[in-house]
Design goal:
- By secondary structure, this protein is mostly helical.
- The chain has one domain (about 1-65).
- About 90% of the residues lie in helices and about 0% in strands.
- It is built from 2 helices and no strands.
- The longest helix has about 40 residues, at about 25-65.
- About 0% of the residues are buried.
- The model has no long low-confidence stretch (mean pLDDT about 85).
């Protein structure tokens, strides 16, 4: 949950920085498109990261029981 909050804050902060930076409209649109693509890629990796973390926690728990 903390990772998602951090990622969301980073995306919002990055978008704000891009919007308020002194650049032309075309440059700003290209940067926003790149940031959106990065966000989509990160969002696509989140379910796998959660699954991996869950598996690791489960393994550690089972190992701790032995």
């Amino acid at each position: 949950m903390l990772f998602l909050a951090f990622a969301g804050g980073a995306l919002v902060g990055g978008a704000a920085a891009v919007l308020f930076a002194p650049r032309s409209g075309e440059q700003t649109r290209k940067r926003l498109a790149g940031a959106m693509e990065d966000g989509r890629e990160m969002a696509a990796r989140v379910p796998q990261a959660i699954s991996d973390a869950s598996s690791a926690a489960q393994s550690a728990f089972v190992k701790g029981l032995k």
